[in-house]
Write a structure and sequence with these properties.
By secondary structure, this protein is mainly α. The protein has one domain. 71% of the residues lie in helices and 4% in strands. Strands 1-2 form a two-stranded antiparallel sheet. Helix 2 packs across helix 4, helix 3 crosses helix 5 and helix 5 runs antiparallel to helix 6. The longest helix has 64 residues. The protein is elongated. The two termini are 46 Å apart. 18% of the residues are buried.
């Protein structure tokens, strides 16, 4: 069995006389390294799970809104076929729908900026907003453009980047331009590659 007496690192004597002494000297450093690695991996896993949960919650809210959109459009169509005018509550239903819809978009944007939504998911959602703007998709007799005009000045959005982002997304003509708009309005650290 060999001994380690006289072992030096960079000319500095270690004072280690046996493999046992070496193991005792190295063990705390290995423990710290394993602990740091474990903490890092736990953080990454928890972040991934939170991203997944957040995305699923937004999908559930969006599905709920789509059902409401279908109900509103169906009610308008039935009234139109019967030749009946819309009552005041039915007219207000479209405003309420777009208020909830853009509130969801605002929440998605905030979650994206805070790192809880992947850029590729958010970019796909903003591409859909761009298409809705261009097609002026109708819900309950109100077009998307009018819905946004109604909601854009809401107190919730005052001084926030969200209206600027959505207006930039609406004016984009390509998917690449939409990705640039998202990058422009995101947090600087979201643009770093890992």
């Amino acid at each position: 069995m060999s001994t380690l007496s006289g072992t030096k690192i960079f000319g500095i004597p270690l004072g280690i006389d046996s493999w046992n002494d070496l193991a005792l000297a190295v063990a705390p450093f290995l423990t710290i390294c394993v602990l740091i690695l474990t903490l890092f991996m736990t953080y990454r896993l928890n972040k991934a799970l939170k991203k997944s949960d957040t995305t699923m919650q937004f999908h559930a809210r969006f599905d709920e809104l789509r059902k409401r959109e279908h109900e509103l459009n169906e009610a308008i169509e039935k009234k139109a076929q019967a030749g009946l005018p819309l009552d005041k509550d039915e007219e207000q239903a479209a405003y309420r729908y777009f208020t909830r819809f853009f509130s969801l978009q605002f929440d998605e944007f905030c979650a994206y900026r805070d790192g809880f939504i992947d850029r590729k998911h958010f970019a796909f959602w903003m591409l859909s907003r761009n298409r809705q703007w261009k097609n002026n998709t109708k819900v309950g007799g109100m077009g998307y453009c009018d819905g946004w005009s109604h909601c854009e000045e809401a107190e919730l959005y005052k001084g926030h980047r969200f209206p600027k982002l959505l207006n930039d997304v609406h004016s984009c003509t390509t998917e690449r331009a939409i990705r640039r708009a998202i990058k422009k309005h995101g947090r600087w650290w979201r643009n770093l590659s890992w």
